[in-house]
Amino acid sequence: FFMFLAGHETSSSTSTFALFCLAKEPEIQEKLRNEIIDVLKKHNGKFTYDALMEMEYLDKVVRETFRMYPVVPVIPRRCTKDYKINNTNILIEKGTKIYIPVIGIHLDPEFYPDPLRFNPENFSVENRSKRPEVAWMPFGEGPRLCIGMRLGYLQIKVPLVTLLLKYKFTLNKAMQPPYISEAGTVVYMFKQP
Description:
two-stranded antiparallel ribbon; 193 residues; heme binding; monooxygenase activity; mainly alpha; 7 helices; microsome
């Protein structure tokens, strides 16, 4: 039960951000819709787990959404033992609080050229191989990786496929930037009108 409760806000926010990005980028939206239709044709029109796993562009779109809008922009940790950072004189003492700036890493142009542009090709096999794995960590990393990651992916991908099969998404002409709430919130969310 806890995983469903903990994943509700994060999954719904990420789905909303994905649809927002797709509405801003109609060519990407159409490419994704075409992939969904093509994959489902191969599966006799049945939306199964296997069909979902074949949707490679969908995976890129979701990963890019997590990159641009990590639901948890900072991950707090506590150092469990003294640690000296390689090739420096910096010692992080046991018990020190550490804050991993996920949003800063995800928007670093060293890892993602043109980081403010929604570009699912950031997650092509070729582009992923050019950067360290920890340059993308919306679920954390290592032994403390979010236990609900796989469930979260399903909670985002299934509604996206369902909605994109039935609807085309566009931005409301009255919507004005900035679209995202100010810093200081625990999770990223859209501004309230």
